[in-house]
Design goal:
- This protein is α+β, with helices and mostly antiparallel strands.
- Among the domains are: about 70-185, 2-Layer Sandwich (Beta-Lactamase), CATH 3.30.450.20; about 345-450, PAS domain (Beta-Lactamase, 2-Layer Sandwich), CATH 3.30.450.20; about 470-530; about 535-695, Histidine kinase-like ATPase, C-terminal domain (Heat Shock Protein 90), CATH 3.30.565.
- Helices cover about 45% and strands about 25% of the residues.
- The chain has 17 helices and 23 strands.
- The chain has helices at about 5-65, 70-75, 85-95, 130-140, 180-190, 225-230, 280-295, 300-345, 365-370, 375-380, 385, 395-405, 455-500, 505-530, 545-550, 580-595, 665-675; strands at about 100-105, 110-115, 145-150, 155-165, 170-180, 195-200, 205-210, 245-250, 250-255, 260-265, 275-280, 350-355, 360-365, 415-420, 425-435, 440-450, 540, 560-565, 575, 600-610, 620-630, 675-685, 685-695.
- Helix 1 (about 5-65) packs across helix 7 (about 280-295), helix 13 (about 455-500) packs antiparallel against helix 14 and helix 16 runs antiparallel to helix 17.
Length: about 700
């Protein structure tokens, strides 16, 4: 081949490489420039949305402070003497906070006081019950509302807060502050490049650095949406013309003249549905990219492209191929991980993986729900420090070390307790497995856990119920037979007394025998509580009245034990057998006295409570009267707490002075027959408190 032809071919190749290199650099600079502009616009939109959110949040605290002033509550409850003080307060907030208007609405939405009461466009006497900020505040929820005033015809931000009466279950009115938009409009005006605006969920533009767009529709909407905007009266009477903007593709919109704009949106926190939207014209964006690029790319860049084009091209192709292969491998691995995670999350038991140090590596959805946490907050936590009760923590750590040593045998299955994030304990049946690496070295533990708390509780309830049933059968038989004997004894004693004078010493002995027999009859009535014959005789009674009729001083005749009685509010009545409830209180007071041989204090508290499923009590949802007996004694050891209602369990000495028999078992039986619940809380050295829940009559 001739030299001229070779040079021509080389020249063509050089030009081709230079062109390819130049195009590659051009495209790279262009994409990078557009990406920079996107980031800049997105940052501006996010910054403005954050500034608006902070402004709305801060001013909501101002109206909260105003709503808490007692003058407002008095004025709303009809104490008109306080209306002048309310107006002074509204004037103070108006001047101090530099707001447009401060006003107070009654529960019907009527304005009873306003800082602009002396102006021609005064709000006093106007009704704003149709405003969402009023309706939401009357449900007890504060509100932030952006709108055009129907009376003042001025734009503003309305902050409303409920004003509660003496009873805080329902607001008696609403306090409102209307703030000007000067601060927000000044923030929007700081973005001269492009269009920045704030619009509601329907697309009505409320603020913008393009003034002719205010109260126009950002996007095309249906007539139904326009009718809804008119009905809300939030943005005046309209019309709300369309700006001509249309979304064409992700992040791009076109205007009515065919111009293309970058679009970025960000939600405004505290104002659901409101968005900050930013538009950036693509034509100035292109000039902003091309001008510096053409100015900076010179002969050196082109020469470098010519010399290195081929190498760069081959390296690029190779790297692109390697990245594609790696990306495919990572995607496949992630899909497998997601699939495994779905399998684990659908399991009906807690599945947990701990590493060699006892930290959580994985916890499935059932486990997270059981422990009351989410995956991000639990991963990496020390299992024993966060989810094992302190009293068994050392034993569980020892079990874990045995498993890490490969000793699976006797530790493969066992029952233990876990502690949830809110401090509750759950009983769990664990099944354990050892995890090891390719060399057989144990590096973690996998265990599944089944929550058997309710099952254990039911089993314990059934066991106690069976014991009570057996004692009840025995007690019923003994009580009836013993009653027959007592009747005969009392009859013979009465006959003997009839033939003796009252001064006769034998008469006095018989009289004492008769009193002892009557007391023995009281013992039979306690035993009958466990039998069918001991069902309560139900009437409507008041727990405070029962306690007031009892002699608390009998707790300690020598005065070493003091008794304090307290009722919270107006106590509801209960349907109960007054004598049996008195017996329950008496037994609990006797237990409190015996827990304080050196003296102390017993407190009886009666209060109304509403029980829901969230309380974790084995009771139906509803209203209950709870009375509590609290002592300052030595407390009950933790190992004895589960057994104190067992009719066969006692820690007392036997004999006439110490053993009082079935006291707590009788209490529990009586409470259960009244469809109630008795619980106990105790800590060694800090005393004991018993709670009795009985259904209220309301």
């Amino acid at each position: 081949m001739k030299l001229r032809a070779i040079i021509l071919i080389l020249a063509v190749l050089a030009v081709g490489m230079a062109t390819a290199g130049g195009m590659y650099v051009y495209i790279s600079f262009k994409d990078a420039g557009i990406e920079d502009i996107h980031r800049e616009v997105d940052a501006n939109v996010e910054t403005l949305a954050g500034q608006i959110s902070v402004y709305l949040d801060v001013n909501l605290r101002t109206v909260q402070a105003m709503a808490g002033v007692d003058y407002l509550r008095r004025a709303l409850e009809g104490q008109n003497g306080d209306l002048d003080r309310v107006n002074d307060l509204l004037d103070h907030f108006h001047e101090a906070m530099k707001v447009d208007i401060c006003y107070l609405l009654d529960e019907h939405g009527n304005t009873i006081a306003s800082s602009n009461r002396n102006d021609p466009d005064s709000l006093v006497g106007k009704n704003y019950a149709f405003r969402p900020y009023f309706r939401q505040a009357m449900t007890g929820v504060p509100s932030v509302y952006l709108a055009l005033g129907v009376t003042t015809h001025k734009m503003g931000v309305y902050y409303s807060y409920p004003v509660y009466g003496i009873v805080r279950d329902k607001p008696v009115g609403v306090a409102v502050i209307k703030m000007p938009l000067d601060y927000l409009e000044e923030k929007i005006g700081r973005y001269p490049d492009g269009i920045m605006l704030v619009a509601d969920r329907s697309g009505v533009i409320f603020m913008s650095n393009r003034k002719d767009w205010i109260y126009r529709m950002l996007w095309r909407v249906t007539p139904e949406v326009t009718a809804g905007i008119a009905a809300s009266r939030q943005f005046g009477a309209g019309p709300w013309e369309w700006t001509g903007m249309e979304k064409k593709e992700a992040g791009i919109a076109s205007d009515g003249s065919g111009g293309r704009h970058m679009v970025h949106e960000s939600l405004v926190r505290n104002s659901p549905g409101w968005k900050v939207t930013g538009f950036y014209d693509m034509n100035p964006a292109s000039k902003r990219i091309y001008t510096p690029m053409l100015r900076n790319i010179g002969v050196a860049a082109l020469a470098s492209c010519v010399m290195l084009g081929l190498i760069v091209w081959f390296l690029y192709v190779k790297a692109d191929r390697e990245i594609a292969l790696r990306k495919d491998a990572e995607d496949n691995l992630q899909r497998e991980r997601d699939k495994i995670r779905k399998y684990l999350d659908t399991a009906g038991v807690m599945l947990t993986v701990l590493d060699a140090s006892g930290r959580v590596v994985m916890l499935n959805r059932t486990g997270r729900e059981m422990l009351g946490c989410d995956d991000r907050s639990v991963t990496g936590l020390d299992w024993f420090e966060n989810f094992v009760p302190k009293r068994i923590r050392d034993d569980m750590k020892s079990t874990f070390h045995h498993l890490m040593d490969g000793d699976l045998g006797r530790f493969e299955n066992f029952e233990s307790s876990v502690m949830t994030m809110n401090g509750q304990e759950r009983i769990v049946l664990f099944h354990n497995a050892i995890l090891d690496d390719k060399n057989g070295v144990v590096n973690g533990i996998l265990f599944s856990g089944t929550d058997i708390t309710e099952r254990k509780r039911i089993e314990d309830e059934l066991l106690v119920a069976r014991k009570l049933e057996s004692v009840g059968i025995l007690a019923g038989g003994i009580a009836h037979d013993f009653n027959n004997l007592l009747n005969a004894i009392l009859g013979y004693i009465s006959l003997a007394k009839m033939n003796l004078g009252k001064d006769d010493w034998i008469y006095k002995l018989l009289d004492e025998s008769e009193k002892a027999s009557i007391k023995a009859g009281m013992l039979t009535r306690r035993l009958i509580t466990f039998s069918e014959g001991g069902r309560p005789v139900i009437t409507e009674v008041s727990v405070p009245e029962i306690i007031r009729n009892m002699d608390c001083a009998s707790l300690s005749p020598e005065g070493s034990v003091s008794c304090k009685f307290r009722v919270t509010g107006d106590s509801w009545k209960i349907r109960a057998d007054e004598g049996q409830i008195e017996q329950v209180i008496g037994n609990m007071l006797a237990n409190a006295r015996e827990a304080m041989p050196a003296g102390g204090e017993v407190e009886l508290l009666v209060e109304n409570v509403v029980v829901t499923a969230d309380d974790g009590l084995p009771l139906a949802d509803g209203k209950y009267v709870r009375f509590s007996v609290k002592d300052t004694g030595a407390g009950i050891p933790p190992e004895n707490l589960p057994k104190i209602f067992d009719p066969y369990f006692t820690t007392k000495e036997m004999g006439t002075k110490r053993g009082v028999g079935l006291g707590l078992a009788i209490c529990r039986s009586i409470v259960m027959k009244h469809h109630g619940l008795i619980t106990v809380e105790s800590e060694a050295g800090k005393g004991t408190i018993f709670h009795v829940y009985l259904p209220a009559v309301v």
